[in-house]
Amino acid sequence: AIASLSHHGPVAEVLIANRVQYPEAFTDGRAPQEINPKSQASEESAALWKYIKTWLHVNMQTTKHVIMQTERIIANGQSNRP
Hints:
With 82 residues, this protein is mainly alpha-helical. It has helices at residues 2-6, 21-26, 32-35, 40-75.
């Protein structure tokens, strides 16, 4: 499934297993870390969040760079528009 999904965009390298801790935590709106901070579910959730934060940071930096370049081009009158 990971290989198939990766053809459509980035896929987290973190696997979330079907664990009892997830439904236990979700029944009252909590995360696995709040039930048992040392459980495997907690480790999986933390790893997924770390991956997401890293991915967002990289993409925000790229977007910021592109915006700054575009603003410089527009300010210098170097737009390709007629």
